[in-house]
Structures are given as C-alpha cells and as structure tokens.
Amino acid sequence: MTPDTDAPRGALTLQTLAMPADTNANGDIFGGWLMAQMDLGSSVLARTRARGRVATVAVEAMTFHRPVRVGDVVSIYSRMLRAGTTSMQIATEVWVTRQPDARLVKVTEATFVFVAVSDTGDKRRLPEPLPDTVPDPLPDPPSDPLSDPLSDPLSDPD
To answer: What are the boundaries of the region Disordered (predicted)?
Structure first.
C-alpha cells in the first residue's frame, strides 16, 4: 500500500498543529521538529506500559514519505511491537490532516526503542502489564492467511 491509502495503526498519542516557526529553508516543517513530536508521542505509550520514567535509547528505520506543511494537523499514532525485560520497541506513524479537504496523509514513520528507568536513571524491569491498559504486543495479522503468526515468537530485545 502507498502512504496515502493506509489507515493509521496504533493509538493516537499526540496531536498538534504545524506552525511557521517550525519550517526549514524550503518552507516545509523541519524534520527534527517532527522527530521530536514522534518521540513525545511514542513516549506516552512507553510511559504507560512502564508505569513510570522511560528514556529513548534508539530510533530505527525513520522514513519521511511526504513533507509536512504549515497548518497541517499532525497526529502521532503509536503501537507496541515488543516489550522485553526492560525495553520496549514502539512503531510510530505520523499522519497529517490537509486542508481544505481534510485529507488524511501518512507522512513519516519510525520505530522508537525505550528503556524503563528508575528515578535515579538506572535501567529497571518493566512491571507486569495492567489489565485494560497497554497490552503486550500481539503479532500483526499475516499477509498470507495460511501463514502462522506465532511460528516466529518475538524475542526479548534486551
């Protein structure tokens, strides 16, 4: 699927408005600003799962599909890919609502890795998930209905 035909995947974790102060030399929104918004949005999911402080330790496979324009409503969607002993891998998508037709467009995606940390900044174990909060990840539905999504279990990323 192309970025324009997908639907957002994950929970809406942050929404903001792209403003002129955040533009690059070409007049589009600066990629660093967008990356910061993605970090904030994915940290909402990470903090909920960790029930406390987290630190971003890596950003994997960031892809910019389309520019973000001034006035776009920027929506960050996050979903848990893996939860290990201390760390979490979170898929993050950015979709914008373009005016005047309110068209939804996928503009960026990346995978963020967080580690749960104590109040002193030391790595700590993730607590057991609470019921009705952030579930530990389930495999994506297979693209081939005959394949077994559980045949390759998720390994601990720690």
So the answer is: 122-158
